[in-house]
Amino acid sequence: MVKICCIGAGYVGGPTMAMIALKCPEIEVVVVDISVSRINAWNSDRLPIFEPGLDDVVKACRARNLFFSSDVEKHVADADIVFVSVNTPTKTRGLGAGKAADLTYWESAARMIADVSKSDKIVVEKSTVPVKTAEAIEKILTHNNKGIHFQILSNPEFLAEGTAMEDLMRPDRVLIGGRETPEGQKAVSALAAVYAHWVPQDRIITMNLWSAELSKLAANAFLAQRISSVNAMSALCETTGADVAEVAYAVGKDSRIGSRFLNSSVGFGGSCFQKDILNLVYICECNGLTEVAHYWKQVVHINDYQKSRFVNRVVSSMFNTVAGKKIAILGFAFKKDTGDTRETAAIDVCHGLLGDKAQLSIYDPQVTEDQIRRDLAMNKFDWDHPQHLVPSSPTASKQVNVVWDAYEATRNAHGICIMTEWDEFKGLDYGRIYENMVKPAFVFDGRNVVNVEEMRKIGFIVYSVGKPLDPWIKDLPAAAPSI
Fold first, then answer.
1. Higher pLDDT residue, 91 or 178?
2. Annotation-wise, does 111 bind a ligand?
3. N or C: which end of the chain has fewer CB within 10 A?
4. Which residues pair with 461 in a beta bridge?
């Protein structure tokens, strides 16, 4: 029986291994992590991450052929295939700070694999890593090999949060990169055979190591670029009276372009887009490709501009000050159907409003108060380090109140900022909300969730990203310095 071990019980490792266990009942799958509390959560009825469908898969496999353990070394030593799914945060200091990937956790994992291994192993890069990382990992493993042979494969993940289980069940493609040697190709075939239990053969794509590593960065850069492109158009739509939804619909009907990732918003978030683009920028700079680096850096710059533009709309619309005013923040997760807040646009928008002395009342159906306060107090880039290694931050400001009901969040508020496109926010009784707000009552829709005309009929002054401007807002300044 093949034994698989995955180092890292996070958003990638947990769901991916659960799906492999479900589809390959003859394979023993163990997910290991040094965080005992995280492993305990995976072994409980309340999993550490929220993802539709994940609970059912874990419950079907756990204690059968899916196990979660903090005994990292034992299970790594026993495994035939070791997936490494540890954090690859952006460096906060030293060479490449603010752009380069910090491979501290990857290197530590590689050294541990070399130390405890007593048999040949296939080591699979599952984390998003810079191109040529495999080369560094190979050097660590081969210099500590004690006669043991390792094959390094790149198998990047392409999961979208909120649909991760569906993405795993029916992936667009599975990429496997390996060395173009007989041993490398044998390892590629071994991993392909695992996925072949449920993924059609034509969707399992094999390539060289460097192509696989770069494909993940390239895919995320292209997707983020589409969002920044439509958000750049949203600013132009507002100044010209065009509707970004209509423009995006027309553009998306072109079969060469397609309609996916053309929804305008307050900005993209999530664990990958910004981090991977900054990593790509750094790799380009290291290879002397200055113009290419500038090109990709602009995608991130437009995303930051979109968030600062949104904050500026809020402040300028409300008589140029939000000091002491209650602003309801509806949604804190970076997208609906996930509790993940990594790089969520809500953090920067909240910081912008807090900087102008607003009183925030925050509601999200899936994000805990503890997480919200931690995010608002955390230094940039610290989110991607394991929690026990992040220095404890001071408690978030007394200007922040976290509530568990949208109606409570909006009671006596001067304005509402919709930051996540939760379906629940489409069905709220906005007439009731309006009655309980300070007048004039403002809605700033960062996700194009509400029907603007209906909201104006109720009495709201509405700003919706990329939509024709409310007469109230029309002549107010749109631009703002970056957050």
1. 178
2. no
3. N
4. 442
Sheet with 28-32, edge to edge strand ranges: 66-69, 28-32, 3-7, 81-84, 121-125, 150-154, 174-178, 204-208
- Which amino acid makes up residue 482? S
Residues 200 and 170 sit within 8 Å (Cβ to Cβ): no
Catalytic residues: 272
User: Residues 6, 126: contact at Cβ < 8 Å?
Assistant: yes
- Average pLDDT in the 229-246 region? 96
Is 432 marked as binding a ligand?
A: no
Helix runs in 43-181, H state only = 54-61, 72-78, 104-116, 133-142, 164-169
12 is in an annotated binding site: yes
What is this structure's pTM? 0.85
Q: What is the largest CA-CA distance in the chain?
A: 76
**Size (the chain), residues:** 483
Structure letter (DSSP) for residue 39: H
C-alpha 111/C-alpha 116 separation (Å) is 9
- Give the pLDDT score at 422: 97
Annotated binding-site residue? 88: yes
Task: Please state, rounded to an integer, the average pLDDT across all residues of the chain.
Answer: 91
Alpha-carbon distance values, 112 to 90, 109, 117, 387 (Å): 22, 5, 8, 21
Least confident of 41-45, 65-69, 140-144: 140-144
How does pLDDT run across 296-307, given as a tens digit for each residue? 999 999 999 999
C-alpha to C-alpha distances, 48 to 9, 271, 338, nearest whole angstrom: 9, 16, 12
Q: Which helix (H) or strand (E) holds 229?
A: helix 209-240
pLDDT for position 304: 96
Could you tell me the end-to-end alpha-carbon distance of the chain, in angstroms, rounded to an integer?
54
Residue 60: φ, ψ to 5°: -70, -30
In sequence order, what DSSP letters do the residues of 309-374 get, joined into one string?
A: HHHHHHHHHTTT--TT-EEEEE--SSSTT----TT-HHHHHHHHHHHTTPEEEEE-SS--HHHHHH
Q: Is 477 annotated as a binding residue?
A: no
**At residue 480, does pLDDT exceed 70?**
no
User: Quick one: which of 133, 389, 219, 50 has its CA closest to 14?
Assistant: 50
Burial of 305 (0-12, 13-18, 19+ CB in 10 A): buried
Rg (CA), the chain: 24
Give the three-state DSSP class for 162.
Answer: coil
To the question of whether residue 431 is assigned a binding role by annotation, the answer is: no
